[in-house]
Write a structure and sequence with these properties.
Layout (H helix, E strand, L loop, with lengths): L3 E6 L4 E6 L2 E7 L4 E10 L9 E4 L4 H8 L6 H12 L39 E10 L18 H11 L15 E2 L8 E12 L8 E2 L11 H7 L22 H6 L6 E8 L12 E8 L7 H8 L4 E4 L16 E10 L7 E7 L6 H13 L7 H6 L19 E6 L20 H11 L3 H32 L12 E6 L2 E5 L14 H32 L1
Parallel strand pairs: 8-15
Antiparallel strand pairs: 1-2, 3-4, 4-5, 6-8, 6-9, 6-10, 7-8, 11-14, 11-15, 12-13, 13-14, 16-17
């Protein structure tokens, strides 16, 4: 059939449509796009082709209605549209029907969308470890708090896990056997935090895998029976098993898609059921960078830090908490050293130990600053570690939390980290074998690296901009050489913070706090009083109800 051409001419526009069998006339004007089925062509008679055009839609009323807009100017057309959109406009003004707005809660036909609840009980799970990095300053610590107004790293992680349906919604960390390696406080960052938990899996089997709550018991040799059509014990032929996915979920990519930029899941690793990120850990590595100026003697700080190595009672290097009822404050430090090459323009203090007390690293670095400043002798560390002569801690400021970072968590067998969904062994493979599975094991690595590089560069730009005020001040008002602030003693506490005092008092001559035994006993007594008062109030309220 030959193509048929139909033309329609308006005063202000000419439109031509070419079609076959069923034709569409496209009307374009300043208001909207209309597509109208115009004619339907039929019939082939003998050797001669005849066409009868049957109008499907009478265009006369439309042409008449549209012609009244032909002579309107642009401003008049805009005014007419504004009048149409104005609430309360008369029906005569509303000549153009309003376009239907998108509603995510309804289908296009107007029926409400019914979102099916996610049934987590039919999902298999597996035990994995996650490698977390996070900035400490935006959060009130790592651990989730009972106060919902406090934003924490674990609080954000929990929301991301629930949003991606990797754990069951509403059951919290208790419902997925969650554990963390080390608890970092408000303002402290993490580069190598390790957590472990049970998450949803898309595979069947593997390290740390367990079946769903509703999954049927698998009959032995079911795969063979299904392939051969052998009937099972119940007289029914077993269904053919579904093809298992070759790869697991890419857990870092799922979580990073919903986590804030200040928290990133760098990698995941399959782990056995008996793995615990806290109790399986053999050492924890903390770093504390600081700027070295002429007022600090790094050689004295190194000499004093040597006394930290070994197992000691660190009660004088921590903050006591009676609610924890800690009786043993002995901890073992494996290494304590300073690195001048790791960070440009800074020195990094490294402290590696099997476990740490609350605020232990921040108390240690504060004492070392006093030694480096020359305000305390190198023997200060040994004196504070001698708990027989000094059973309670003298009062002194601890280091600022901003520079402190949990660098690494060590385990007897290194975890087999990957970022993609590859589910087999990776670290133990040869270089050639790793290349063959690299696309699956490291899928998404390049994208994450680009994001992190961009964040680092942005922070460097901000650092340079913030330094602008300092550059301007030093340029227009330089400090005279040899200026000495007599009568003022200053010493750093980390994070750029400095304490100024008119008279310095030696640490061992300061007021002492309570011993751990006294702190624990007072907390127990206070708890017993609270419990007793609550019980008495309950009995009294019950008596009032009985009288009523």
């Amino acid at each position: 059939m030959m193509d048929c051409i139909y033309s329609l001419h308006f005063k202000f526009q000419s439109i031509t449509t070419i079609g076959e069998s069923a034709h569409t006339l496209t009307l374009v004007h300043d208001f909207r796009l209309l597509r109208i089925t115009l004619f339907s062509c039929r019939g082939v008679l003998g050797s001669k082709r005849r066409y009868s055009a049957v109008p499907v839609l009478n265009l006369a009323p439309i042409a008449t209605a549209m012609s009244r807009y032909a002579d309107l100017s642009r401003d008049e057309l805009i005014a007419r549209l504004e009048a149409v959109d104005t609430p309360g406009a008369s029906s005569s003004q509303q000549t153009l029907p309003s376009r239907r707005r998108y509603d995510p809660n309804t289908h296009r036909n107007g029926r409400p969308r019914i979102e099916k609840p996610f049934d987590f009980t039919v999902q298999p799970t597996r035990h994995i470890a996650l490698l977390l990095t996070y900035h400490g300053w935006p959060y009130s610590g790592l651990a989730i708090q009972s106060d919902p107004n406090l934003t924490t790293v674990e609080g954000e992680l929990l929301k991301a896990l629930e949003k991606t349906h990797l754990i069951e919604h509403g059951k919290g960390f208790e419902g997925c056997s969650y554990s963390r390696c080390g608890r970092t406080d408000r303002g402290v960052s993490g580069e190598g935090q390790v957590v472990d938990l049970y998450v949803r899996s898309c595979r069947k089997g593997g390290k740390g895998w367990r079946a769903s709550e509703k999954e049927e018991v698998v009959v032995e040799n079911q795969d063979v029976e299904a392939a051969e059509g052998v009937e099972g014990p119940d007289g029914k032929k077993p269904t053919k098993p579904k093809k298992e996915p070759e790869t697991e979920f890419s857990y870092p990519r799922l979580l990073n898609g919903v986590l804030p930029p200040s928290i990133r899941v760098v990698a995941w690793s399959p782990v056995d059921e008996d793995f615990n990120s806290r109790f399986s850990c053999t050492y924890r590595h903390y770093k504390y960078p600081f700027h070295l100026d002429s007022s600090l003697d790094l050689s004295k700080m190194r000499e004093a830090a040597e006394s930290l190595v070994g197992e000691h009672d660190f009660r004088n290097f921590c903050k006591l908490d009676g609610s924890k009822q800690i009786e043993n404050h002995s901890r073992r430090v494996v290494k304590a050293y300073f690195d001048e090459e790791e960070a440009e323009g800074m020195v990094v203090f490294n402290l590696i130990g099997t476990a740490f007390l609350w605020h232990q690293v921040r108390h240690v670095i504060a004492a070392l600053f006093l030694v480096g400043r020359g305000l305390e002798d190198v023997a200060l560390i040994k004196q504070l570690l001698d708990t027989e002569k000094n059973p309670s801690k003298p009062t002194y400021n601890m280091g600022d939390p901003l520079p402190l970072t949990l660098q690494e968590c060590g385990y007897p067998e290194p975890l087999d980290w990957r970022i993609g969904g590859y589910d087999g062994p990776f670290a133990s493979l040869s270089s050639e074998e790793q290349k063959s599975v690299w696309p699956k094991a490291m899928a998404g690595r390049d994208k994450l690296e680009r994001e992190l590089v961009a964040m680092k560069q942005h922070s460097e730009f901000r650092t340079w901009q913030i330094g602008g005020a300092l550059r301007t001040l030093q340029k227009i008002m330089p400090e005279p050489e040899g200026e000495d602030r007599k009568g003022v003693v200053s010493y750093p506490v980390g994070g750029g913070e400095v304490i100024l005092t008119g008279k310095y008092k030696k640490v061992m001559d300061r007021q002492r706090g309570e011993t751990p035994e006294v702190v624990n006993r007072k907390w127990k007594e206070a708890k017993e009083r609270r419990v007793g008062a609550a019980a008495a109030a309950g009995v009294e309220s019950a008596g009032v109800k009985d009288e009523e």
